Amino acid sequence: MGKVIAISGKGGVGKTLISTLLVRWLTENNIKNILAIDADPDSNLAESLDTEYDKSIGDIREELSCKSLPPGVERKKYLEGKIFEITVETDKFDLLVMGRPEGPGCYCAVNHMLRSIIDSTTKAYEYTIVDTEAGLEHLSRRTTENVDVMLIVTDTSRKGFKTAARIKGLLQEMNIKANKIFLVLNRIKEEDKEIIKEEAKLTGLDVAMEIFEDPLVRKYDLEGIPLIKLPRDSETYKAIENAMESAEWM
Amino acid sequence: MEIDIKKLPVDIGVVYEGERIRGPDTFVELGGPKVEFKAELTQVVDEKDVVDGKITVIGKDIPQFTCGEKVPFGILLEVYGEKIEKDLEGVIERRVHDFLNYVQGFMHLNQRYDIWCRVSNEAKEKGLTFEDIGKALIWLFKEELPFIEKMQITFMTDEEKVKEHRETALGLYEKRDARIRGMKDEEVEEFYGCSLCQGFAPNHLCIISPQRISLCGSISWLDARAAAKVDPDGPNFAVPHGEVLDEKNGEYAGVNEAVKEYTTGANERIYMYSMFDYPHTSCGCFEAIAFYIPEVDGIGIVDRNFQEEAVNGLKFSSMATQSGGGEQMEGFLGMGIEWMHSPKFFSADGGWDRIVWMPSHLKNRMSDAIPKEIIDKIPSEDDTSSLNELKDFLKEKNHPITQRWKSVVTDELKEKVTEYIQEKNGEIYPDQASADLGLSEDELMNVIDVLQKDGTLG
Ligand code: SF4
Questions:
Q1: What phi, psi does A189 have (nearest 5°)?
Q2: CATH top class, domain B185-403
Q3: ipTM given for this complex
Q4: Fold for the domain defined by A3-245
């Protein structure tokens, strides 16, 4: 119960694609209790999941922190209700958007409460998929410190691998407990396959998925079609399906 | 009354506490943001007014709804116990949330007039009714709070009835809040500490008392107490305040001990109600900062949302950097804005009579906290932009701070001025005289004022 899978990586390497298709794969495998968290202010998981949201935590943080409540009302319970209120509920999964990070105000107390609320919320779902930025700020400060699996996505660029290696270090630095950490290789070109494997080895991480360059994904991106709608028999979705079906870490 | 919870159609237990009933799995939603009328209320009543174990349902019961409905919802708990006082109503009511969540297939969120519940399709299929939920609640309450001797519960889904119930409840919440607001530091045994900001201000410890909210404004004494209870190893913990060492300044033996312990000796004593001598430390994330203005012997307050320079020529951000970090800084004090409602607000330094500047939007927001007699005498950025103007304004409005200026006329000063006047045979020119005496004209006039009043000068 309550498995948390976080997906991280340099911006633009396909984190949101992986997060989206993981959610999709779970829904197709009869998992009913799924929470998707968009913890990357620069991505748009909602769009990619073909849903809309009204408000993010960032939008209501000020109110959560500063609103004067009657003295007999507990702030944490109030927060809990508000978070529930902005959680998007679709037929197949729920979505929570963290939104922009806080402004100059003080949010230690609120962030602390948020983290404990989200931590216990994730326990109520069978799976929580967190799309998080490379800096892991959002994850550690406002979401959760405990993830079961961390998938670090990289494309075949040097920078992608560098960032992947840095994220591995950050996990320790930021005190995030990740039981398992894997690399996900995205946008591999057939001819580079061997070199990429070498690069991957250097990071010291096992590879959980290998996804080849897929013109269809490019097309969806360009035309703004939600990635969750990728056909079942698309190369990318099949790659994820294969990886997940044989994944021991699930 | 005997209740056998094993006979209920669903399971009851702490394992269901975190259970989440998602929209698509919901049979009926009781209360919640889409419904106008909802409220839960606990009342302590006389023994004769309660029939132990009685459960009443006014309006439709769960099985009678159609799937997907969102309906008004009221809960009324009436309890009796020889040892139960009115004050406990809030404490008992707080547990409704916990206990209702122990019911499999039932979810409860929020509090008071905001409650939001869901019954799952599965629970409905099993035949769950309000009677069952009521039984579970009464059983749980008596298990966990043995001082409850009798309890009866009314569930309401009839709109008119819920509306009425909500009205009554609103009045009673207000009374309850007024009681909490009236709670005094002296009346409780324990204050609470918060060490959450030590990450960036290692020597900072917030001491939160009923009459002094945390610096960030997010944690009241009740919040801290609740947090300390559910997470004893967390950042909030009880601080038994111990002996009162200085009633006026708010110095407590137990608080000093906690401060010493949690700042590894960097700070040793603090005053809860003053910004002088041993002020509470400031972490850096306070809602507002109070600053001493020596020129007028008063205190100005500026909050985080005011971007311009305050009357002392400094911005919030630069004062925050200077005074934050957990150092004890006389003359600067980070504070939660709600503290202004407290009778202990700078009580050692003169309270509101000492406040001489605030940004206008803060004045508006807190207008109910500021005593009527003084609100127009406190200037904002609209009235003054320099210390000179400030002084004139305060004098013109006869702000109580001007009394202090008079009282600081020392005997020495009086003597000096009297001598000077005698020297000049009573013929003095203010500008010349103040230059000769090394005083400002205002100060000189003050002294002369005093001398005239006490009869030294005719
Ligand atoms: S400012 Fe708030 S979060 Fe920081 S220590 Fe004080 S109570 Fe805790």
A1: -100, 140
A2: alpha beta
A3: 0.86
A4: Rossmann fold (3.40.50)
